[in-house]
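[Meeting: bench + compute handoff]

Bench side (C.D.) handed over the final construct sequence. Compute side (W.E.) agreed to return the predicted structure before the next meeting so the bench team could plan truncations. Sequence as handed over:
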Amino acid sequence: MSGIRPTLRGGGATHEPMPQYFFHVYTKNHVVDDLEGVELTDLQVARECAFRGVQELLVQAIKQGTEPPDRISVEDAEGREVLTVYTTEALPKSMRTKIFATCC
């Protein structure tokens, strides 16, 4: 990924850097900080990446019998949390209802 996206301004194309996002994974007892980050076109793409990441980590945890993530928190290059995707969001709605009915 080149990290540059073309932008039209004043009739001509300019190039500006893409925003950088950091995906931090939280479990019940651990935090895995993303120290490198990734350049993405916008916040919606970052949300989609976080959602897919939560899904993949949840599947991996189920298969391996390990602790699943609670959430992925996304920060921008300035260190501001711009969104959070919770593991429950990656579950089918019917399963979310069953989990909350048994635990809460």
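W.E. noted at the follow-up: Residues 20-103 form one domain. C.D. will use this when planning the next construct.
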